[in-house]
Design goal:
about 180 residues, mainly alpha
């Protein structure tokens, strides 16, 4: 049962990862367009510059969840690597329960009124020619932390499976590739 739940979460996160890949490509094209317009044609668009920031924000916000899924997050590896797989799984479970999940709930709760205030006044960019619907990008904060919370639950399930020796843990080599 836990394996099936984990696979479902992983498919969802792979979908998020694919969306982030497309967004990264769109951001690169956006930056390229902005640079060409600015330096070749001496014409710049505030909206295009803001769109770069919005792409970047979404990539970072949702990228944290994807990096957790891929087990590529930051930790103190020189200590962690010396422990057995069961001890590592236990550390991951306890750390996720004590730190990650409460932190995500705090951000979700704290950002809700921030987004609703922005939505209620239909906040737009303060720059002339900037983007409208600023509340939409602000809404990505609680949404991304909901996704991170769900991935945290998946991470716990994955580590319970490792602890119970149902599956092997994913290892990341120093270059960042999974093995």
């Amino acid at each position: 049962m836990l394996i099936k739940i984990e696979k479902t979460f992983n498919k969802f996160m792979d979908f998020i990862g694919n969306i982030l890949t497309v967004m990264l490509l769109l951001m690169i094209l956006n930056v390229f367009y902005d640079v060409v317009m600015r330096y070749a044609f001496h014409n710049s668009s505030i909206a295009m510059q803001e769109l770069e920031w919005h792409f970047f924000a979404i990539i970072i916000l949702f990228g944290t969840s994807y990096s957790l899924k891929e087990n590529a997050h930051v930790r103190v590896d020189f200590l962690y690597d010396k422990f057995s797989e069961k001890t590592q799984a236990l550390i991951n479970i306890v750390g996720t329960l004590l730190f990650l999940l409460p932190f995500t709930l705090l951000i979700i709760y704290g950002s809700y009124s921030y987004v609703m205030d922005s939505y209620s006044v239909n906040e737009t960019s303060s720059d002339p020619g900037g983007l409208k619907y600023l509340w939409a990008i602000k809404a990505m904060i609680p949404v991304s932390f909901i996704v991170l919370f769900l991935e945290g639950i998946n991470y716990i399930i994955q580590n319970v499976n490792i602890y119970r020796q149902i599956e092997k843990p994913k290892k990341v080599d120093p270059q960042g590739a999974l093995s």
